[in-house]
Amino acid sequence: MAGPKHFAGYGAARGGRDYDDADISDSELWNVYLPPFKAAIKAGAGNVMSAYMDTNGVPASGNRRLLTDILRGELGFDGWAVSDANAARSLETQHFARDQKDAAARALHAGVDMEMAAFDPAYDNLTQALAEGKVSTEDLDQAVRRVLTAKFRMGLFEKAFADEDATPAILASTAHRDQARSAAEQSFVLLKNDGGALPLEAGKLTSVAVIGQLADSKRDTLGPWVFGHDTAETVTVLHGLRDRLGDGVPVKHAPGAGIVERIFPTPFDQMDETVQKTPENWDDDAEIDRAVTLAAGADVAVVVVGQRQNQIGEKASTSTLDLPGRQLEQLQRIATTGTPVVLVVMSGRPVDLRWADANVPAIVQAWYPGTRGGEAVAALLLGDVSPAGRLPFTWPRHVGQLPLVYRHYRTFEPHEQATRYYEEASTPLYPFGHGLSYVEFQYANLHVDSESIPVGGIAKVSVEVTNTSARTADEVVQLYTHQRYGTSSRPVRELKGFERVTLEAGESATVTFEIGPDQLRYWSAATGGFVQDATTLDIWVGGSSAAELTTTLDVTA
């Protein structure tokens, strides 16, 4: 059962500090934070998890307007809601509820059908709360009915238990491993590729240096929030390259610079015996020297940098985007050797790549690529697949730019948007939707099937995309719009559609998108509700939010 979380605004915590409160305007809430939940519900999500924190001054797990009026009334959710771990109990901690009995009553009334609690559940107090008239039988029946309905829908009363005997065969499935590799390959984002530095030509390589502790860390390759895993199955970047190149090409590894540990430990490490760390008494100076020497003698240096898996995810907020430890210094020294460098970034958030972008010819964002991640990285670096992942966020130059979003407003003197800071460009390092390929795609014949549509009408926007290169590859075609005038000012660009297409060498395809009320309605602070304006729309189609191919469409009253 799919369960989107955390409802709602969890990602907007002040200062990017996990668990802290979120203060979100109604415009941001309705136009940015709620649409993904609406899409998940439309796709069939059967559960929603309520958030821990206060949203606009009211704890989300005790907010009836959020969990009932909006989630069910406005978004049409008919499944069951569960609290995040201990979120109902926390209503007392957050000085919202008088005590645990009050916390239980408030959470139930808000619309939390099931409490998730690690200990001493607040809902243990519901019997007494019912006896005292603090909750109604109707509220209790409604919550129970929703939970039972979900169980009936999943067939749990007909087949209550999983077939444990089938577990080994399922976990050993070759198809699952192939899918893990394919998913990783499709997710990688080629951030930079100057001079065709990638792909590497296996037949011309006589030696490869792989640098970095993350390059051979099985646990970090999996990423955060992984439980019950078997790291013996994990293929690291180092072993992926060795397997792909075979015995004929030496692939040597130097772990190099240590990665500093968290100042404040995470409780998730206590549940994981496979966590990898820099060994105690690690001699950074000596290990960096060894890494530089190894790189200097190789045909190419694949340098893997980033953050460990316990430095991202829940309870892993950060005040900086700097690479931990001396990874940047090590990269800089390797670059001075003259050996071509390919930078592979393993992280779940953007890191400061300003120096790398200016000095390293090829940069791949590999995220945490999972069980077969090393195989997938090797496949991409050696050209077995062409990268087609696209950035799902705007990549900042520096932490001081945050929050940085592509869908900002024009505001005052928009022609100076790139020069807001006095000492550095206020533009992103890489735009939203960015991602390069090993092939060239040509966009042409952008066409709207009508010069104008009425409010409520639908237009079809089509574009011809051609693979002008000599190999098959995927492209992610993206549609953006801007509304020139209306009830409210609107962002400079907003993603309204995208489609991933596979094109053989020389092949063309026509990609078509619809633009209508679903794409053009927005919540306006001027009216306190949704509107669709008669206006003129700018339309762009291309490979990122920086697309240049453009046309217009009039929307009439």
Summarize the structure.
The protein has 557 residues and is an alpha/beta fold. The protein is 25% helix and 21% strand.
Query: What characteristic shape results from the CA principal axes?
Result: globular
Uncertain residue segments: none
Number of helices: 15
Strand content: 15-25%
Mean pLDDT: 97
Task: Give the end-to-end Cα distance, rounded to a whole number of Å.
Answer: 43 Å
The percent range for helix content is 25-40%
User: Biggest sheet, strands in spatial order?
Assistant: 6-11-10-9-7-8
Number of strands: 21
Q: Characterize the main sheet.
A: 6 strands, mixed
Task: Provide the structure class.
Answer: alpha/beta
C-alpha Rg (nearest Å): 26 Å
Explain the overall architecture.
- The protein has 557 residues and is α/β, with parallel strands linked by helices.
- Helix content is 25%, strand content 21%.
- The protein contains 15 helices and 21 strands.
- Strands 6-11-10-9-7-8 form a six-stranded mixed sheet, with helices on both faces.
- Helix 2 runs parallel beside helix 4, helix 8 packs across helix 14 and helix 10 crosses helix 14.
- The radius of gyration is 26 Å and the shape is globular.
- The chain starts with a strand and ends with a strand.
- The model has no long low-confidence stretch (mean pLDDT 97).
